[in-house]
Design brief:
This protein has about 425 residues and is mostly helical. Helix content is about 75%, strand content about 0%. The N and C termini lie far apart (about 205 Å).
Length: about 425
């Protein structure tokens, strides 16, 4: 049996380069028997040579296959393929899990959501309790305060979202759907069908069809239901009345400012928007503003605190400035008051001096006149009574009272008397 052929060189053993085959040995070097060599042999040797040739070809092929299979490049390719198969198996398993999760019955998911929504509506209904806090006047609040706080604070998001959606649909329905006309249409159709059925039944069957469906007892609303409904209506009305008064009398200044801004903006928008548009905006603000605040509470509180600090600083500065100007104005008023008071005292003193001097002059003139008149009367009446007897006086001893206006340009009383008619008469009598 011939020697095995030389091993095949596959070239570079780098894993990142493609495999390369070396030089293939010549067939003569592989010592493969040919037909010419087998023809000269005997029959027994011929069969043996054929078997040897087969074994040699099989051995060479097996050796080449093992060499290629054990080459590092082949091993790297096998590893890459096996890892790809593993990753494909992982991806297929993940897809299978997703398919299994998506293949869950839809009815089960709907049932879970329905149970959660029902639970949130139950929590919202149970929130109608009278709060412990009271108004500034000390009177208790209504249970609708707790109800609306729970509703608008999004503590039950599904219930709040459904109520918001229902409000929006009601606004659009009131705007675009003729609900009142449809109500009257349903009413006249129902009454017409009932009347027609009653008349047709009496004509054909001698018995009215509408009266045959009449219940044994008409339905009535129980008194307990009416009382509870009226109590709820009373609480709801009182909620709006109390809240309006709390906003009006500034129990919470921020709420009063917010209501002022809303009223001012509504006054401007009512000229541009219809009533349904304004109602839609109001509902959106009422429902979405608390949600935005809750989602960005820290940021909004930070900005509100900064604005409050700035407002307080500005208010303090204005207060200090007003106090400074007030102090200056007070000092100015005091100075002006003292000045005018001094001037008034000066004028009053001068007037008093002039009055006192005029009165003194008048008294002096009257005394002189009385003395002159007394001396004349004593000389004309030599008869006197005793020293203890009181003196006797006549009308001529006293001056006549003036009966005309004072003469302009005359200052003293004596000159006024002399220029009067009585003064002239007195001088003539003397």
């Amino acid at each position: 049996m011939s020697a095995p052929p030389e091993s095949i060189n596959l070239g570079n053993t780098q894993t990142d380069a493609p495999p390369q085959l070396g030089e293939i040995p010549h067939p003569s070097e592989m010592r493969i028997p040919t037909l010419s060599s087998t023809n000269g042999a005997s029959g027994v040797n011929g069969s043996t040579s054929m078997e040897d040739a087969k074994n040699a070809v099989y051995g060479n092929a097996q050796s080449a296959f093992n060499t290629v299979a054990n080459h590092p490049v082949t091993q790297n390719v096998k590893d890459t393929i096996s890892s790809g198969v593993v990753s494909d198996n992982g991806a297929s398993n993940q897809c299978q899990r997703k398919a299994n999760s998506l293949s869950r019955p839809v009815a089960e998911s709907v049932k879970d959501q329905h149970a959660k929504t029902t639970s949130e509506f139950s929590n919202l209904a149970n929130a109608r309790t009278t709060p412990g806090t009271k108004a500034a006047t000390g009177q208790p609040l209504t249970h609708y305060h707790s109800f609306f706080y729970n509703l608008l604070s999004w503590e039950n998001p599904r219930a709040t979202a459904i109520s918001f959606l229902a409000t929006v649909l009601f606004i659009f329905g009131a705007r675009y759907l003729p609900a009142l006309r449809w109500s009257f249409k349903i009413l006249w159709m129902t009454l017409g069908i009932a009347a027609s059925a009653e008349i047709a039944g009496k004509l054909v069957l001698n018995q009215g069809l509408a009266s045959s469906f009449r219940p044994r007892k008409y339905y009535t609303i129980p008194r307990e239901t009416l009382e509870s409904s009226l109590e709820d209506v009373e609480q709801l009305i009182n909620f709006f009345v109390i809240e309006f008064q709390r906003v009006l009398f500034a129990e919470n200044v921020l709420a009063t400012i917010a209501a002022f801004a809303a009223a001012l903006i509504s006054h401007g928008l009512i000229k541009l928007l219809p009533l349904w548009g304004l109602s839609l905006i109001a509902a959106s603000v009422i429902y979405l503003a608390p949600l935005i605040y809750i989602s960005n509470k820290e940021l909004i509180d930070h900005h509100i605190e900064n604005a409050s600090n700035i407002a307080n600083a500005q208010a303090k500065q204005v207060q200090d400035l007003a106090g400074h100007h007030t102090a200056r104005l007070t000092e100015t008023v005091k100075a002006q008051t003292s000045t005018y008071s001094a001037k008034a005292q000066e004028y009053m003193g001068a007037a008093k001096d002039r009055t006192s001097s005029a009165v003194g002059n008048a008294k002096q003139q009257v005394n002189q006149q009385v003395k002159s008149t007394g001396s004349n009367s004593t000389s004309n009446n030599p008869f006197k009574s005793g020293p203890d007897a009181p003196p006797s006086y006549s009308s001529s001893d006293f001056p006549h009272a003036p009966k005309q206006d004072p003469v302009p340009g005359v200052a003293s009383h004596q000159e006024q008397y002399e220029k009067s008619q009585f003064g002239g008469q007195a001088q003539t009598a003397l």
